[in-house]
Each structure stands twice: as C-alpha cells, then as structure tokens.
Specification:
The structure is a homodimer of 236-residue chains. Chain A has a single domain, classed as Rossmann fold (3-Layer(aba) Sandwich), CATH 3.40.50. Helices cover 32% and strands 13% of the residues of chain A. In chain A, strand 1, helix 1 and strand 2 form a beta-alpha-beta unit. The N and C termini of chain A lie far apart (46 Å).
Chain lengths: 236, 236
C-alpha cells in the first residue's frame, strides 16, 4: 500500500540507460509512475533520450575566451555566478534546486556510473553551484544542496554476495563511496541506502516482480526512511 | 637518475584533461618524455585531443540491428568476438593488448575519473575483450589483461590529509577502489600505489618541481615497484 505523503514533494529522476526496453529503463518508468500516483511532482532527466553531452569542455562556458587557459574550476565558477553557463547545464541546475529528492537510476558499469551520468555530474555540479569558495563549505547543513534526499538505484550483473564485506568486489557502500559520500554528502544531500537489483543481465520474470515490489517499498518511504550515517573518519 | 630498464617496454598513457596548458597535461607530457628517454615505447591516447566519444550507444556496434534491443553486454560481446566493433574502440583495444603497462592520467572530478575517461573505460573494456563468458574469469592470473602494470596518476584540489583514514573524504585507495580494484584488478592488471598531486588548483612553482620529481621516481620504478596487495575480503 502506498503511503499518503503529508504533502506533495518534488522529485528529480535522472536515468542513464541506452535501451528503453531494458530492465533499468523499466525501473525508471516504474518509479516515475509510482511517485506521481502518490501525489508527487516528478521531473525526469533521461540522459540518453536527451542526448546529454558527457564531456566538460570550453563549449560549456560560452563566454570563455578561446585563447584563455581553461582552468575548469575558475571558469565554471565565473560562468555560474554570472549566469552564463550553457543552457543545458543551467536547466539541470534548476531541476536540482527545485527537487526535494533526487534519484539516480543507472546500471553499474565498472563499479560506477555510466559515462553519460558521470558527465551529467561533471557538467552540472559546477563551482559556484555545488562547491567552491562562493558557496557554503561541503558536508555541512548549509552545503549547497542540503535538505534534499538522494537515492542511488542500480542494477548490476554480479550476484548479490559478490558485493559484500567478504565478497570478491567489496561492500556496495564502499564501491559507491565516490557517489554516496563524494557527491551526495559533499553537496549536502542525505543519501539513503542504495537500492540494488543484482544479476540483472538475466532476471527471471518472478524475480523482476520481486525487485519491483522491493523498489516500491523504497519509493514509498523516500521521505521517511533514515539516511545512511555520515562516514565517520576512521581513527587510526 | 633514470634506471636503465633491462629491456624496452611498451607503455600506454591515457590522458583526460581538456586544457593542454594545465598542470595535469604537463604531467602527461613529462611522463611521455621521461619514459621515452628511458628507452621505452610509449603510445599516448589524449582523449580530449582525440575528441573521444564518451557515451556507449548503438553506434559502437555497427552490425547491431537498430530495431533489436540493445543488451549492452550481449551486443558488445558479439561485436567483439566477430571483429565488428567501432574502429575507435578496436584501436584502443589493440593498444591495451600491446602495452606492458598502462598509465591513466587525470584530474579527480567528484572522486573519480572525468566522464571522457569513464567513457573510454565503458566503451573499450567490452565483453569478450575485458570480461564475459568467453574470456578467463576476473581477478585471476589468466584474466584478459594480466601481466600488465597499471598506474593511476591523479591531481586533485583538496589537501592531502583530506584523503586519509581520518580525513573528511576517506582514504585515497578507498575512493579509487572502483578503478584500482573494479577495473584494474578485475581485468588482471597489477595496480601500483596511485600517484597523486594534491592542491593542484593553485600549485606554487617549487611544489610543482617537487611533484615532478616525485613522479619521475614513480615512472622510473614502474616495472620494479611492488603492486598494491589484492584486496583481501573482510572477514566479518
């Protein structure tokens, strides 16, 4: 049963799979439908459908003089603060400002996000917007995107036990540390436990139904479940 | 002093910085020159200069029927085994086969590789080449790229102590786990301790000279230094 939210929230879903008929894309569609049915406002950035440009380069900063050295942090900060970013980047920043929660839906490729999603991160999270000297410091309660919940929703081919403390690949939370901690926590978001569908390359129908049910429970508790604790620095 | 290698080796340098005048690009040039001066054969894949396509899509597999579902693993395996990959991908696979060592030189963006380098990984490390049912299993001595040494050479803006066990970001080796373990070890390569230049956004000239000297020592011992130990699964 779907919880009735106290109020309608704004949710940004960012999806990064090249095939609309894939399991991953079907999870995206499922999430969008379920969240809307629960009364939320949902915006979808389907990066493949948008033909999202993945690579940071001088074209991202239309006012950057071509003969000037491209110091990415400085140039992106200048363009951000003066409102002269490439329009595709500015539009995604508006979605992030608007969102109460962000879901990144992607297949794990080489233990991380597909390049098109990494390129969404590299290009959208500019200095002056998501980090840098002109915004509050990272990790804190005032960090640029604080107050937003964030959920990584991943599919992968391996068996579930491979991603565990005694599994061959290590714990999923460690594998996803660059995103969970380095992106989400860093910018002030509250990351939830990732949602993962293992053995996604050949999922029998009944296991897909189970996965969808499990995802439904995660979506229904998007605003009520406890975020993962802040990574306490190890004391050596 | 440069060690004289017992024999000339083949080294692939993959670089991912948009600005040829950057610190990062100068480290690439330094590595190429130093390795050649030591008698090695060096090939450079400068991804920005090559305008490397970052995003995996159906164009990577010219013989894939457009109306057929793009199951990336299956389709990339078919194209790999039948020699029908996009030529830019096949050329990079040839370089990896040729190489005795691989250096990935990049600025850390959001705790990982820039999208263009992630896209080099996503597109080049196809099923049938770097993993999959038709090649030996991962991590082992027969894994597809075994026998090759691998060095991540990164620059980042933070202070060095931020990337430590009791630093705010966690240990560099944990942050780089998806590459060190999930890419390099997985495909059979022997990853060395990463080489890192901290505070790279505003490096004074004398610290750059120090960094270059430190890099020189790492390059000179590329084939003699001990790889990092295989991540032993934790016993919980």
């Amino acid at each position: 049963m779907t919880e009735t939210p106290d109020q309608s929230k704004n949710i940004l879903v960012v999806a990064a799979h090249p095939e609309p008929r894939s399991l991953n894309a079907s999870l995206t569609a499922f999430a969008v439908d379920r969240l809307r049915a629960a009364g939320h406002q949902v915006r979808l950035s389907d990066l493949y459908a948008m033909k999202w440009k993945a690579t940071v380069d001088a074209d991202d900063f239309p006012s950057h003089a071509p003969d000037r050295r491209l110091h990415v942090m400085d140039v992106s900060q200048e363009a951000t603060l003066s409102g002269r970013l490439s329009p595709d980047i500015a539009a995604e920043q508006d979605k992030l400002r608007w969102a109460d929660a962000v879901i990144l839906q992607f297949p794990m490729w080489w233990f991380s996000a597909p390049a098109v999603l990494k390129g969404w991160i590299d290009r959208v999270f500019t200095s002056g917007f998501a980090y840098g000297p002109d915004v509050p410091p990272p990790y804190g309660e005032d960090a640029p995107l604080s107050g937003r919940r964030a959920l990584l929703s991943v599919t992968y081919g391996a068996r579930e036990r491979s991603f565990s403390a005694d599994g061959i690949h290590g714990r999923l939370q460690d594998v996803l540390h660059p995103l969970q901690h380095g992106l989400l926590r860093f910018t002030g978001m509250a990351p939830l436990e990732p949602f993962a569908v293992p053995e996604a390359n050949a999922l029998p129908a009944e296991r897909f139904a189970d996965a969808r049910e499990a995802y439904a429970r995660r979506l229904d508790t998007l605003f009520t479940s406890e975020p993962v604790p802040f990574r306490a620095p190890a004391r050596t």
